[in-house]
Amino acid sequence: MSRAAWAWPVALTAAGVAWYGAESLRHRREQGDGYELHPGQPTVADREFLYAAEALTAAPISHGNEIELLINGDAIFPSFLETIREAEKTLNLLTYVYWKGDIARDVADALCERARAGVEVNVLLDAVGTAKMESVLLKDMRSAGVTVARFRPPKPYAMKRINHRTHRKLLIADGKIGMTGGVGIAEEWTGDAQDPDHWRDTHVRVCGPVVRGLQGAFAENWLEATGDVLVGDGHLPHLDELDGGGPMQVVRSSAGVGDTNAEALFFLAIACARERLHLTAAYFAPRPAFVKALCDAAGRGVEVKVLVPGPHIDKEPVRIAGRAVYEELMDCGVRVFEYQPTMLHAKSLVIDDAWAAVGSVNFDNRSFALNDETTLCVQSETFAGLLDAQFARDLEVSEEIHAGRWAERSTGHRVLEAAARLARREL
To answer: I want to staple 285 with a disulfide (CB 3.0 to 4.6 A). Which of 146, 217, 234, 364 is the partner?
Structure first.
């Protein structure tokens, strides 16, 4: 082959390596390990922990909120539809997944009814995550007066941003009631995780001042997609403090140079764990710094349990990449469980029976460094207890990975894990 024939392949390869390297550096902290806290660091039950979380993430602490924990579609969607149908002034819906099924039509119909009744209805759909959505639903929404926008649609001149999605799941009614968590709008999320066709997920419904944080997360993405600033009493009303679930904050995170807010929050929370750390992660492919953080917690005597999807995961490469660190985690005392009945899509963290996080953040680089995410944090023994009770129920139908058995896996599995680990930054 002539020198000229080699020129283009070599140039393209060099450009690709340079781009990948630049992107890698963009999201890599100068120190590859986790955080180090000064002596006398707080526990997650302390006010000082809240102050630290607020300072690191710029997410204000909110008091006087009510929260309801919702498990699986049979509980989530009735509340979701009720929240839509009771809106009087505004409805703001953002989702990464809007696919097919009766629930997709039910949500669209409820949004259309509110728009026809004079409610301002804004729907923001991630352009990649909602690619399977039926076009007739979009047509019906727009005909009814719903304002529909797509977040970062692929453009030839902006291909780099295609890797940065909004993974947030938000519903805010009248600026007063908010919902967030892991659920997507599709048939897979209906039911009660009773079989492989119906997924396991966790969502929450909140009222009180913390809703302003959810509204802010929506408004941020809406501004980018449409150029419109959402203001006024319909979106940002005065919110009185209520009797409720303890101090809360909405941490929103976006791709950027250095640490994202999601990384900072999770590193801090793990470093402050003293007794128990129960992590539920739909997509678990941690980079070395987070593996070390979990191992450090186990080394301090913390009971660390990690619950991840089992055989019904919808993204097998992520499971393989996560399995590549099982041995290291088990060697340092972390216990790993794989959920068996269906796809586990929940994302939650409970620490020391006192603090919990529920939202869209997975335990992988895509959530920590590439996507726009939102997580609701609650300092409350009551709420943490509810989440931990669900965690215990999930463990009853999960399979623990044991070191002896795991060491006997085939060479083929080890090769796949090593390959997937190389691609972990994009998973």
So the answer is: 364
**What is the tens place of the pLDDT at every residue in 242-279?**
987 789 999 999 987 668 999 999 999 999 999 999 99
At 244 the pLDDT is 73
Distances (CA, A) of 204 to 61, 99, 407: 18, 21, 39
Residue 416 CB-density burial (10 A; 0-12 exposed, 13-18 middle, 19+ buried): middle
Give the pair of three-digit tokens for residue 227.
């150029």
Q: Which strand ranges, in their side-by-side order, compose the sheet holding 398-400?
A: 248-253, 373-379, 355-359, 347-351, 276-281, 303-309, 335-339, 398-400
Q: How many CA atoms lie within 13 A of 312 on its CB side?
A: 18
Torsion (CA) 177, 178, 183, 188 in degrees, nearest 10? 30
On the 0-12 / 13-18 / 19+ scale of CB atoms within 10 A, 327 is middle
Q: CA-CA distance, 297 to 199, in Å (whole number)?
A: 30
CA angle 307, 308, 309 (to 5 degrees): 135
Give residue 5's pLDDT: 52
Cβ atoms of 136 and 165 within 8 Å: the answer is no
Structural domains in the chain, sorted by start: 30-60+247-426 (3.30.870.10), 66-226 (3.30.870.10)
pTM metric for this prediction: 0.90
DSSP 308-343: EE-TT-S-HHHHHHHHTTHHHHHHTT-EEEEE-SS-
pLDDT at residue 14 in the model: 46
Which residues are within 8 A (CB) of 279 and not within 5 positions of it... i.e. 6 or more apart?
Answer: 294, 304, 305, 306, 307, 348, 349, 363
pLDDT at 284: 96
Q: In sequence order, what are the beta bridge partners of 14?
A: none
Assign 63 to helix, strand or coil. coil
The secondary structure of residue 231, as a DSSP letter, is -
Q: What letter represents residue 367's amino acid?
A: S
The reported pLDDT for the residue numbered 160 is 67
Report residues of the chain scoring pLDDT below 50.
Answer: 1, 9-31
Helices 102-116 and 135-144: angle between axes, nearest 10 degrees: 10
Place of tokens 């995170």: 253
Rounded CA separation 308/323 (Å): 10
pLDDT of residue 163: 83
Helix axes 288-299, 261-271, angle to 10 degrees: 20
